[in-house]
Amino acid sequence: MRAHLTSLFIAALVGCASTPPAPAGDGDAAKAPVADAAKAAGKAAAAKIPDFTLETVDGERFTLSEHVGQEVIVMSFWATWCQPCLAELPHLDALYQQEKDNGLLVVAVSMDEPTSQAEVAPTVARLGLTMPVVLDTEQRAVALYNRSRNAPMTVVIDKGGQVVRASAGYNPGDEEHLAEEVRGLLAQ
C-alpha cells in the first residue's frame, strides 16, 4: 500500500514538472493567468453565498453574485417607516462614497411592502443617496439574510464570499466601527 502511494506521489510530481512555465517578458500575458485565477476565485466565492436578483429604484437589475468575490459588500436592510434606518443610511452612503473606488459596495435593501414601495424613491432622493438601493417587495433577500426582519440590519460579506457580520439595530457611532471593520477587510 505504501509503495502504491509513493508511486502515485512521484507520478504527480513528474506531471507537474512537465507543465510549461508562464510566458516571460510580456507583462500583460504574464498577468492574464493571475487575472483568470482571481475571476475563478470570485466565481467560486459567489457559488458559496445565497444569491438574489432585485430591481433597483432606478429600474436596473442588481444581482448579488455579480459582486461577490470582487468587492467587500455591505447590505443594509431598511424601510421608509424605520427612523433608525433613516438615520443610518446617510452614514452608509458616505462610507460608500469614500471607499467605492477601493472595492466597497454598499447596497440598501428596502424591505418596504408594495403598499409603501412608492415612498422608497422619494426617500432615497430626500436623503441624497448615491449607493444602489434595491426593492425587496417579495422578501427574497430578507429570507436569505434577515429572516427575523430586523430593521435596520447590516450584513457584511468579505471578498472571499463569507458573511463576516450580521448586526441588527443602529446607534449613533456604530458607523465608525463599521467603517473601521470595512477598511480592514478592504486591506486584506
Characterization of this structure:
The chain has 6 helices and 7 strands, in the order H-H-E-E-E-H-E-H-E-H-E-E-H. The chain has 188 residues and is an alpha/beta fold. It has one domain: 3-Layer(aba) Sandwich (Glutaredoxin). It has a 7-stranded mixed sheet. Strand 3 (72-78), helix 3 and strand 4 form a beta-alpha-beta unit. It is globular, with a radius of gyration of 22 Å. The chain starts with a helix and ends with a helix. Mean pLDDT is 83; it is low at 1-42.
Kindly state the number of beta strands: 7
CATH class: Alpha Beta
Radius of gyration, CA atoms, in whole angstroms: 22 Å
The secondary-structure element order is HHEEEHEHEHEEH
From the spread of the alpha carbons, the general shape counts as: globular
Uncertain stretches of 5 or more adjacent residues = 1-42
Structural class: alpha/beta
At CATH's second level, what is the architecture? Answer: 3-Layer(aba) Sandwich
Overall mean confidence score, pLDDT: 83
Distance between the termini: 43 Å
Strand arrangement within the widest β-sheet reads 2-1-5-4-3-6-7
| Count of runs of 4 or more consecutive helical residues | 6
